Amino acid sequence: MNKIIEVTNLRKNYDSLTAVKDISFYVEQGKLFSYLGPNGAGKSTTIDILCTFLDFSGGEVYIDGLDLRRHSQAIRKIIGVVFQDSILDDLLTVRENLTLRAGLYTSDKTEIRNAVYEAVQTTELGEIIDRPYGKLSGGQRRRADIARALVHKPKILFLDEPTTGLDPQTRKSIWNTIKQLQSKNGMTVFLTTHYMEEAAESDYVIVIDHGEIAAKGTPAELKTRYSSDTVRLFASDEAGLRQLLHDQKLDFTMSAGEFVVKLPDTMSAIPVLENCQTCISGFQVLQGTMDDAFIGITGKELRE
Ligand code: ADP
Q1: For residue 10, how far is its CA from the centre of ligand 1 (angstroms)?
Q2: Is the pLDDT of residue 304 over 70?
């Protein structure tokens, strides 16, 4: 396993406020890594530090074996960054924007042309390559932003909320492109996101809250640890059902004739249903979700 990003005791103070408090984690090469947290948790601060845009107050960061304090120039060459706000020139075409960008890394015209071609192919921008960036739709702009981050063939792609503000269909298609970059091209992807369905598809998730790591693990591990499966019982005999649940010493809540019973796992619903069947008219077994896990970890909804 190659740790392409290694962060040890990272700290960032803004005057008296400590936005990031001695956090440590690593990212494995070639993985899709999600960095989640409620607003103000310290996500942008962390990503800005890793991308060399922001100085830090303490700790160590190594990117692809390079010390961030001493080798920020070299690190910039191996990372691609997609910001929340677009930074391409509205008046230039996609091709012109990408060519300018590629020209920062090499003066070889063939190399530049090939790099632009590859980035455009990967992001499926071929048909609109000669359209001005300012005339593109939101989703096309996002693709062009990603293409810009890819022209120098980075090893790691940082994406700060890449799909925020896009309609659901466009979001899905951009998300598919990001997934492909990782699965087909073997790129390491580090992203912050507001969408739990995206985090749920990543290889590893870190949740930060108040500048500290509140939880980490694969989506499956986080679901198991921080959310529970439940069975909803629709009562035909409310008093009888309440008594039966009490007798089985089950943890439940009740409102409007509906009882929600927490389960250690989905299969545990079977004995509960068998024991309660005389007092119910129906039931529903629900598996814990990443949304539940996030609320379990931070006490908040991700998109609050
Ligand atoms: P997130 O990206 O998770 O929303 P941020 O990293 O932007 O969180 O912010 C973390 C904390 O640091 C917040 O309390 C925020 O107000 C504060 N903060 C962020 N940038 C600055 C800054 N330039 N100066 C002072 N405080 C800042």
Answers
A1: 15
A2: no
